[in-house]
Each structure stands twice: as C-alpha cells, then as structure tokens.
Amino acid sequence: MNKIGKAESVEALKAAIAAQRGAVVAEYRGLKVLEITALRKKLRAIDAEIRVVKNTLIRRAAEGTPFEMLSAHFTGPTAVAFSHGDPVAMAKVMKEFAAASPKVTLRAGFVEGKVLSAKDVEILASVPSREVLLSRLVGGLASSITRLTRALAEPPRKLVYVIESIRKQKPAETVAG
C-alpha cells in the first residue's frame, strides 16, 4: 500500500471511529471469506460493520481520540466491529460469532468513551435488547398505574357495599320513608 492509500485508509478509519457508538476489537486467525462475509451480513442488519485493519493504521487513526485507549489491543490479526446503532446488539452478534468459531477471539470493547475488557463485552452482550428493556419499563409503569387506580377506587367501592348491605337489612318502607 502506498502513502496515499495509507492516508486514505487512516482517514476512513478516523471517520468510522468518529461515527461509532460502540466497538469491539477481535482477533481472527484463519477465517474464510464465506465466514467473514456471513459476519458482515449479520452486522449490517443491525447497523454495524466490521473492518479488518492494519494495527499501525488503526493506531494512527485513533491518535488524539478516546479510542486511543484501545491501542494496546491492536496486535496480531485485528478486526474492529463498529456499531452505528445499538452497541448491545453488535456485542451480541460478535459474542455469538466468537462462540461459534474458535478462529475469533474477543479482545476488548469500547462504549461511551470507556474501554471494556473481553469479559465486559460478554456481559454487555447478555443485556436484553433496547426493545425488551423498553417493553419491560412500559409494563412496569402500566402495572403501577393499574394498582394505583384500583387502590383509589377501593374506598368508594367498599362504601357502596356497606350502604347496599344496610339497605338490604332494613325493611323496604323504612328506606322509602
């Protein structure tokens, strides 16, 4: 790769770093084209991408950014997955792929300006999706509101039962009179 090609690669990586909402650094050894293509398709479906990078180029691209904290993980065959959407979904895809393929090892992650260990990436991948969390929140709020409504409606209902009970116990002429 000539100087111009390297400069273009560094600029493309800088743009990817700037646009990412999360990243996972992985080591890959001996992946076949079909395997990496399958991973790319899965990532593309969740608004993420994976790039096989030269370590010197990714280090240059990361210089002066919080992403630079990952530099220690840029050794050996390196692939970086960038999420432009939900970083949890990307972590799930990467974890599943690494679990299914012994050729891929997760090294580190990067979310919201913080470096994550490989173990932290796996923990992040176990978090339910955004949609599931939102539905749980809405369900919890709805059940709280329902309980509050029932609690507020209970005293008048009990009063009606007491009045009805008294009415049934008294003779009809006393109530009408």
Query: What summary fits the major beta sheet?
Result: 5 strands, antiparallel
The CATH homologous superfamily of the largest domain corresponds to Ribosomal protein L10, N-terminal RNA-binding domain
> Approximately how much beta-strand content do the residues carry?
15-25%
CATH architecture descriptor of the largest domain: 2-Layer Sandwich
Q: How many strand segments? A: 5
| Average pLDDT number | 86
Show unreliable segments.
none
Break the fold down into its secondary structure elements and pairings.
Blueprint: H1 3-19, E1 22-28, H2 33-45, E2 48-53, H3 55-62, E3 78-83, H4 87-100, E4 104-111, E5 114-117, H5 118-125, H6 130-169, H7 172-176
Antiparallel strand pairs: 1-3, 1-4, 2-3, 4-5
Helix pairs in contact: 1-3, 4-5
